[in-house]
Amino acid sequence: MSAASHVATESQKRAKAFAHLDEAKLGWFHLRAVIVSGVGFFADAYDIFVISQALPMIYQVYFSTSYIKGSFPVGMPGFNNNVTIPKTGQNVKVDFVDNYPGGTNMDAWLKASTNWGNFIGQIGFGILGDKLGRKKMYGVELIIMIVCTIGSAFSSSMLNGLNVLQILSIWRFFLGIGIGGDYPMSATITSEFANVRYRGLMLAAVFAMQGIGIMFGGLVFIATLAGMQTQIQADYTALDTVWRVALGFGIIPAVGAIYFRMTIPETPRFTVDVIGDTEKANSDVEKVLSMNGVSNISSAWDQTEIATAKVSVKTNSLKEFRAYFGQWRNAKTLIGTAYCWCALDIAWYGLSLNQSVVLNLINFNGPSKITVNGSKITPPVDIWNLFYQIAIGNIIIAFAGTVPGYWVCVALIEKVGRKPIQIFGFLVITVCLVVLAADWANLSTQQVPFLVVFTIAQFFFQCGPNTTTFVIPGEVFPTRFRSTGHGLSAAAGKVGAIIGVQAVGPIFNNNPQLVLWIFAAIMFTGAIATLLLPETKGKTLEELSNEDD
């Protein structure tokens, strides 16, 4: 057989293998891929967002004796106290940010430390996923997450050295590397095994588990607080157990998914396009189609057969990366996915990890101030009830717009398309933030109107760019750069998250109106940048790759 005939034959085999994947009915293998990837995203979101409720408890336990001083005055309305009441950690929420040296920056760093780790993990795992293969890297990120979650839950101060917050931030940083690695790995594997008709739905369903993870964070806090009510009302330092249980819970979904991730097969697309073994890829496609019809989501894959290079393929070297993305048609796609994700995360994380302002406005962050002798003061609180109400408030926010938004997007993404959902979501969020910023003086004093506008914004974050910025990068790049492209896009998002939490977030408590104007402007630019992207609905990965074969 001539070299030309051999290449033609291999191309036909490749096209046939991919056609079978693209045209396959939605089945049990697809369900397994979504569950295995989705459970990881449940753990990712849980670990990232649980910290916003854990930190106030840590501050309360470790800094109350240092920063809570004085007494409540005589004659407080509703208390009828004839003597002063000493202020303690039992009846006052500690003001960590204003008392701890550099408290604003420390609080922001603790919330953003995981995002710094995400940035490294997304780039690192993205590149390694293209160099070493999806299978070799999948599961490694969960091992990192499990180890670092345990470390986070058992964080404590050194006798002479770092305090509990500094130790926790180190563990959270390395936890973030594992979480970051999950983004390109899960997106790439799900995309490359999916059929054309339901690829967007499968990717969106994986990402929608983020909403379930956020919701479970609140539920775990509620359950733990309810179970320890007597102990906490007797001694507020029992909160030390609550935050440790909440952080430690994150290992449960990770442990549950690790076996399935370590045994998932290499994707046929990587086997063909990067390794160059069309025979092995065809064999694997047949196994996928066979498993797709069996109602079993457990692993049943022969791991002994190794793919070997049989035909020459385009490499994923740095030189080839520059050549591919040196073309404007490809560069604009990477610029679009990266910028949209960055813009989205500035506002999304800036709001999500700084929800104390929102909780105050919906009356779930402690009692209102009272007037005593002409001065306004915060009255004594039941510290258990305060943290219980905060947990309830977070659940309300999650149920009101966050969780429904994810799953409505899952239902609509194959009907409407990715670009329309992303553009419309960015624009609705822009309008909501403009309304909040323009009428802040009025809306910030009216619980129901504020909650309505905020809920609409939360809904369209999820049924909009928060989902689509994850989906699109998993579809638009060629196999040899798909994991890298997704990782770079996600890393750009985490740059946005860091800006939102560490640069803009600290201003939120003092000048929320300014922050909302900034977020609104950035959301509008996200809608404009979406125009750089192709619509991926109904197209094969090969059609979208811009590889001139």
Automatic annotation (TrEMBL):
The gene is PHO84. PROSITE patterns: MFS, SUGAR_TRANSPORT_2. Residues 33-538 form the Major facilitator superfamily (MFS) profile domain. It is found in: Membrane. One of its GO terms (molecular function) is transmembrane transporter activity. It comes from Physocladia obscura. This is Inorganic phosphate transporter pho84. The chain crosses the membrane at residues 138-158, 170-189, 201-222, 242-260, 386-409, 421-438, 450-472, 484-508, 514-533. It is a multi-pass membrane protein.
